[in-house]
Amino acid sequence: MHRYDAQTAELASAVLAYAQERMRFDPAPLDAPMSPAELAAAVGETVTPDGLGGAEALRLYDEVLARACISTDHPRYLSFIPAAPTRAAVLFDLVVGASSIYGGSWLEGAGAVFAENQALRWLADLAGMPASAGGVFVPGGTVGNLSALVTARDVARRAWARDGPGGTVGAAGPPRWSFVCGQEAHSSLAEAARVMDVDVVVAASDGRGRLTGATLADALDGLPAERRAGVFAVVATAGTTQFGLIDDLRGVTEVAGARGLWVHADGAYGLAALAAPSVRHRFDGLERVDSLIVDPHKWLFAPFDACALVYREPQLARVAHTQQAGYLSVLDTPEAWNPSDYAIGLSRRARGLPFWFSLAVHGTRAYTEAIERALATAAACADQVRSRPYLELVGEPELSVVVFRRIGWTADDYHAWSGRLLRAGFAFVTPTVHRGETLARFAIVSPLTTAKDTAEILDTLRA
Ligand SMILES: *Cc1c(COP(=O)(O)O)cnc(C)c1O
Asked: Which Gene3D superfamilies match (predicted)?
């Protein structure tokens, strides 16, 4: 089963034909989940001592399993954050899978790491980070946020051990470490705090739900001195998942900078819009952050799973994250850029390569155009909401998330509507909850999502 024999050749044709057909769909069927019982009845036991054979395993996948997975790249999939990988990125994902590249070290993966780093460089340049900036592609924003915060705490711990609070040499660490974020910060930050056993200080928002320099300063000043001394970082959200709001990066970096705090920008969804001139100014101040993340698998048109984690001073991450072991010591040379040294994890897929390949194929201008198209579709959708008397916009969209209310509807109405559209194979639009109220929310990332799509979905809310 490790040799490319006649059977493998047959399977290769079938698998590649399947992949090609899936890529050719315009659009792919939306599909919908099935229950475990339905799936068990349809496929039976697939892991057997003798194996099913390639044709049968692929048939079960094609005819049953794949159809029980929602196509996240469908142009009317507007729930959560959709996916919209380019064909080039998808194709190259097949190549990465076929190539057994170890992406954790320079020794083993130099060519792949070099290419990934050029893709990271493009992002770092868009952010206004210095030439010394660098990082790694990790599986997702959750691991990216956690890795950045682990680095930030490591830096704070070392500073404490060196200087103590206010120069009191030798003082033990603070009773509790904590980081500050805004009320609309992503749930992965609470997860990071649980994993790290640190506290989260949630700062108040301005009227729109954004963390600002002033609300950050208030939050810090409101803490007892002992707790304030344990604050090691501030997380600014550059595009909240719920509304697409961008925190006041200029104000936050100024206040945090004056207090010597690490600033991490969580831009898993929103920082893709750095490439869009029409909204670039909303990220002013980003050039001052210490670390940032953005997920190519969200709005940068790469397949799952890839999060770009970039540090202003990557050597700080290297100190915090490098795993030490006898069998690894050969990798640890000063000049080697080992991606695993900059985040949690050791073995790694060169998961930035599909993103890199697509960037190399299409050029960055195509990215700018595709991101601007999603912004324009979101703006058109907001206009469509405003023009329908049965709908009410909840906040003006800053990026490509549109949240609105169907006047007179209960939570059950939203859920019934959402279920109806999915069952019909027409659209996937799950409701959200904001301050206890169930609302409709469209997140738009695909350049294939059109104003006609959003209008047709909005029309289904009339009844
Ligand atoms: C999606 C998201 C995350 C989590 O990223 P994953 O890739 O899903 O782990 C974190 N922060 C924000 C703002 C997000 O939108």
From this structure: Aspartate Aminotransferase, domain 1 (3.90.1150.10), Type I PLP-dependent aspartate aminotransferase-like (Major domain) (3.40.640.10)
Q: Going by CATH, does the domain composed of 97-362 fall within 3.40.710.10?
A: no
pLDDT at res. 167:
57
pTM of the model: 0.98
Closest ligand 1 atom to residue 267 Cα is 13
Where are the chain's structural domains?
1-30+33-69, 97-362, 365-459
Residue nearest to atom 5 of ligand 1 (CA): 141
Comparing C-alpha atoms, which of 175, 165, 64, 78 is closest to residue 446? 78
Q: Which atom of ligand 1 is nearest to the CA of 185?
A: 13
Asked if 149 and 179 count as a contact pair (C-beta separation under 8 A), the reply is yes
In angstroms, what is the span from residue 12 Cα to ligand 1's centroid?
A: 35
Angle at 445 between CA 361 and CA 20, to 5 degrees: 50
- So what's the pLDDT on residue 175? 87
What is the DSSP annotation of 382-429?
HHHHHT-TTEEESS--SSSEEEEEETT--HHHHHHHHHHHHHTTS-B-
CB of 268 closer than 6 angstroms to any ligand 1 atom: yes
In this prediction, residue 334 carries a pLDDT of 85
Q: What is the third-level CATH fold of 365-459? A: Aspartate Aminotransferase, domain 1 (3.90.1150)
DSSP state of 305: S
State the 10-residue block means of pLDDT for the chain, 463 residues long: 97 98 97 98 98 98 98 98 98 98 98 98 98 98 98 96 69 89 98 98 95 98 95 98 98 98 98 98 98 98 98 98 93 92 98 99 98 98 98 97 98 98 98 97 98 98 89
Token pair listed for 335: 């000049």
Closest protein CA for atom 2 of ligand 1: 268
List the structure tokens of 434.
């904001």
Q: Is 241 in the pocket of ligand 1 (CB under 6 A)?
A: yes
Mutate to test the pocket of ligand 1, among 81, 188, 344 (most ligand atoms within 8 A of CB): 188
